[in-house]
Amino acid sequence: MLEWLRNEVPRLRWFADKTRRVESVEIAWSTQVPGTRDVFLTVARYRFENGPDSLYLIPVRTDEDASADPSFTRWLIDSLADRAETPTALSWTRFPNAVTGSLSHREGRLLGAEQSNTSIRFGDEALIKLNRRLTIGPSPEAELAAVIAKADNSSFAAKSFGVLNLSALADESISVAIATEYVPNVGDAWGYLLGLLTDPEDASGEVADEIEQIADVTAAMHIGLTSDPWRREVAPELIRADDIADWERAGLDALGDLERALSDLEATLQPDALRLAHLLPSASPVLREQLGGFAALRGTYRIRIHGDYHLGQLLRKPEGGYVVVDFDGEPNRPLHERRDKYSALRDVAGMLRSFAYARGTAERADSVGARSAVWHAWENRVRDLFIRRYLKQMAGQAVPLVPASPEDTRIALSALELEKAIYECGYEVGNRPDWLWLPLSRLVRSG
Asked: Full-prediction pTM beyond 0.85?
């Protein structure tokens, strides 16, 4: 098993440390799954030549990932419904009025859309997400499930059933899986929106309707995430001068790290990315000035946010409208950052960047060609519509999450988008070098 864990698992799509060289691997914890002959729920500890260790959850059967094994998925749903044995080190935290015996004995089917985690669908009733790379401490998604349940309108998210916790490896428990209701859908907003983007000059209102619905669910989410003001870890807090200084410093550090990384990797960059990388030093002074835009958030509140907000995190319901999924934050960020509070506009910036990726994807697939300016004009229209609708829905809220001044909102969003684009560059360098040009073009265009 150790040889398979070392040589084959790092090639699987949910393995998040593909850019790091594995030095060694060991089994940190393992237990046979009740009711199965040879499936072991295993936590493997990976050590790398540099950086911290990583823990990965892997259901294993004879040197293969057994996530789709019927005996494993049957145990998973039956244990959630309290109709199957749960090993001592594992326990379900179940949310009130959410779990019934009708959930048990369902057949599980693996969904294929995710990268960093694995989701298993059980009919039209439930979805259980296995967290692959584990972090010690409470799951952000589990914490926010309790907040969402208190919202006056919680329809923006799927109802949570429970969290499966592991207590064998640390003083704090580790969230290894979360169960929610299954939301009938026609796919995510990414696929649905791209399906409409056959012509950037199409004047139909269908895309505009979808963008407004996305803005509506975004505003409903942020309003809902302020619904538990009495628990310190999730209560809204006024943004302080220290917060602003920390966010600006982190953005400046990330930009410096990116500039050094691109310089070191120059010989390996693809031509379109290389051309943009050569322009980055001249744009850098303006970018550093724009990162001072966090100061425009003064007077607003920071809250627990989604943290990894993009079109792929929205499921489109067959009748129209969207539901937000996966409140665990960006998988490559440490747990304390994913549990921290930020401006709600950070999620807005994430969605704006997702529109940029949709534009880039559609532009690459455009058979007409040579319409870059037209595609950028489409993106600008979509951005403006989304921001206007979102701000309209957020107006007059008791807890101010956006600046009162439209100009301050623009300045803050500029800094937050820049921060996100820098993060995207680092991600693309390690995962999709052929897409590095897209976030890099945002940096150079800003400058």
From this structure: yes
